[in-house]
Amino acid sequence: MKVLAVHPSALMYTKVFLRLEPLGLELVAGAARDAGHDVRIIDLQVETHKDYWKLVHDFQPDAVCFSGSYLANVPEIIDLCRATRLHYPNIFQFIGGHSVSFIARDVLALSEGAVNCILKGEGDASVGTLLKAVEDGTDILEVPGVVTMDGEGPPPTFVKSLDDIRPARDLLRHRNKYFIGTLDPAASIEFARGCPWDCTFCSAWTFYGRSYRTASPQVIADELEEIKEPGIFIVDDVAFVHEEHGMAIANEIKKRGIKKEYYLETRADVLLRNKEVFKVWSEIGLSYIFIGMEAVDEEGLKQFRKRVSLDKNFEALDYARSLGLIVAINIIADPDWDRSRFEAVRQWCLEIPEIVNISVTTPYPGTEIWHREARRLTTRDYRLFDIQHAVLPTKLPLPEFYEELVKTQQVLNTKHMGWQALKDTAGIAGRLLLKGQTNFVKMLWKFNSVFNPKLQLADHMRKARYLMPIQPDVVKSIDRKDLYVHGPGGRKTRALDDKTEKFVDETRMGENV
């Protein structure tokens, strides 16, 4: 079969600070190609709908697969599916990815028959089976993870081994368009999949059933040697949870003489526990590290169920600085913040050298916050669920909330963007421009055109074609196991030694599942 894999357009945040290659879609495309199919990829982050229609016309695919990893992309995906069904009624259309796995039936209902099925869970595990069923004309409801309006197939399954899957990087056009900070261009890679923690605002653990699986250091090094881009974004939800795994990868990289520059995300307590790992990585190319602090007080940390004290967070920042790493942190703005709270956070941000990102508390399907707060939503417009819009009632009038939010986000702009950033990174910027790489330099002045309180407020005024279903007023107590896409498999699904497993349990606040 001829298969077209599609990534939707960029979201608000990714229009400025980063643009990442669609690794998940490349993995699905790679699995489909390994199953014998002719595959193409188009990424609408860097191409247009006009490009999509031209590719559909020229390639004449038998199936089109859409990546539904972000809730805010749902309307665009449904529009494309409905238009594709109108013009090409015989194409089999399906959607996979993180977000749609939690809302499969809602998306199918909105598509009004344009979408044949949703593929829940890890798409690279079952896309080959689904395409074979379509090709052979057999019942797709026998495929793990498939959901249609007529029913649901067996539970989704994991790929047998992360060592056996390869992203179809060669199918992605315009690879020079992907970057994160000064890593321009940058490719993405995964060392591990899943998260053993259980933060209330996050759906990584509910998607993967609190599993944590790793690829072998040798396979990771093989992939790094094949990647042409000098910058590497490590996509793991929490990098280097397992000390021995992180060190083994570093040793393999050193042995082979691989020279790259790395960006990763981790937790403060993981950084402090595995200091030697991060020290070694800082010596082989790690330059950026993102730490999700989420809150600057103990009450906020408790709300997000992060058992990391403020002292530990600040100790982690100090240690990262001592390694010469550029540190970015995330703070979640609560809708209940008033002007004084915003001002206190602004002052705190100005006192530290780190890059600070401010996002907005957003209840996503698959998170515990969703089940607690979904009946309080002030909007059901999928497009606004992007962690940059307030979708819950705000203590301040909404226009004032956005003014304070953007003013606080402006701290980032003042400290790290515009002319000051260009001055601090003049050498890097010059080298990038000489190589024809303009992503980083262009983003330095984009902030005010994207982050604008009037524009954010106007987004609420747009007529929404697709709305989330109204949530019931009365909800029974939630069994946390019901939140999972991949059912919890317990300890055996986590590639952790006993000491690390104990550490995880001591630093999380949920039930043992």
How would you explain this protein's 3D organization?
One of its GO terms (cellular component) is cytosol. InterPro entries: Aldolase_TIM, BchE-like, Cobalamin-bd, Cobalamin-bd_sf, Elp3/MiaA/NifB-like_rSAM, HpnR_B12_rSAM, Methyltransferase_Class_B, rSAM. It is a single chain. The chain has 513 residues and is α/β, with parallel strands linked by helices. The chain folds into two domains: 1-145, Cobalamin-binding domain (Rossmann fold, 3-Layer(aba) Sandwich), CATH 3.40.50.280; 170-459, Aldolase class I (TIM Barrel), CATH 3.20.20. It has 22 helices and 17 strands. Strand 16 (326-333), helix 14 and strand 17 (355-360) form a beta-alpha-beta unit. Helix 1 (23-34) packs across helix 6 and helix 9 packs parallel to helix 11 (275-283). The longest helix has 19 residues, at 398-416.
Number of domains: 2
Outline the low-pLDDT stretches: 300-306
The CATH architecture designation of the largest domain is Alpha-Beta Barrel
Oligomerization state of this entry?
single chain
Please list the strands of the largest sheet in the order they lie side by side: 3-1-4-5-6-7-8
**Main sheet specs:** 7 strands, mixed
Helix content: 40-55%
Q: Percent of residues in beta strands?
A: 15-25%
Helix tally equals 22
GO molecular function: cobalamin binding; iron-sulfur cluster binding; magnesium-protoporphyrin IX monomethyl ester (oxidative) cyclase activity; metal ion binding
Domain B12-binding: 8-141
Organism: Acetobacter senegalensis
Cofactor: [4Fe-4S] cluster
